[in-house]
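(Structure overview)
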Amino acid sequence: MSAEAHDDLLAYDREHVWHPYTSMTDPVLTRLVTGADGVHLLLADGREVVDGMSSWWSAIHGYRHPALDEALRAQAADFAHVMFGGLTHEPAVRLARRLVDITPAGLDHVFFADSGSVSVEVALKMALQHQRGVGRPERTRMLTVRGGYHGDTFGAMSVCDPVGGMHSMFADVLPQQVFADRPPSSPDDVPAWESGFRELAKRHAHELAGVIVEPVLQGAGGMHVYDAACLRVMREVADQHGLLLVLDEIATGFGRTGTLFAAEAAGITPDVMCVGKALTGGYLTLAAVLCTSEVARGLSASESGVLMHGPTYMGNPLACSVALANLDLLESLGWESSVARIGTGLRSGLAPLRRLSGVADVRTIGAVGVVELDHAVDVDKATEAALDVDVWLRPFRNLVYTMPPYVSTDEDVARICAGIEAAVAVG
């Protein structure tokens, strides 16, 4: 690409293209990607950088994987899309069966959505319609915890942290949910948190439809890791008060935290589970909502008799086909050992950063590494510092973190840790 073409694209991008969480009148700096292969992104300025973000946690097998490329080509040769209303197709049916097989026992029904946020909307509707179907229409609120993030659509925003989250400016127009304290990291702090959570649920049980949380790891709300025992408390509380337990596994699913699904760390089965992000290996947008037969029966007994949702691109054949190939790779390449190996590299590579000025905490779980600062990150400076050592990171708030592709080598992980160190040093 010529320098003139490069500059023209970036100039138009800056003037007309809105990027996530950015100002249109004062846009942040963007870098032009011209290629991607394995764990590397090729930038237009000639730099080849290790992607420490897995394209927002989705590209777990890296880029241009032959098996995933072929899955797309093969399905495109048959048909790329067909409406899911009144029609079905083999990739969707096979993927539904696969998800039922690999998720916690009892999640027997699958609704395909076209994004993570939409899957959360569907899960909330499931909870509300289920309560109507079992004769409790007054139960219209959700119980959740502070520090959570579930998406950017209105229902999803309502169960995000209402104070410290990204959507506090919309608080006056969102449904008012019930928020418990953020679950603690230390087992020593679980009993006190449990007491408060149980009391809050008891006080509001008459108006609650369900509990929704990100299990074990809260993502965009602050990359907070908490004790799995808290999930068992939530399961007990939900059962005690007739609530549905909804687990948002969009970020945690498919091995990221060390178990295939984070619910397994607590040995529980939710009533409803959302999955997305890594489902297609970063190739196409696709999410799914799974629920138990009890939820399906209750929902079907509501006055509509049907789940009131139906995305145009629901069950897209291309996305379902690449998702199946992605799950094949996840199994055949041994995700457990890959995640464990990456976790070991992140722990050893990031531990020395505790001594740096401005570092408040360093934590890891599975293939996730987080450095928390005692101040807000200068995103532009931190990003460029990481790029100077050939690593792509995208810090936010006071966090510099990584979720590497599972195919990252030990050398790649060491490089990512060096990039985080560079970002922290200037951030």
In short: Residues 194 and 233 are 7 Å apart (CA to CA). The chain has 13 helices and 16 strands. The longest strand covers residues 359-365. The first helix runs from residue 3 to 16.
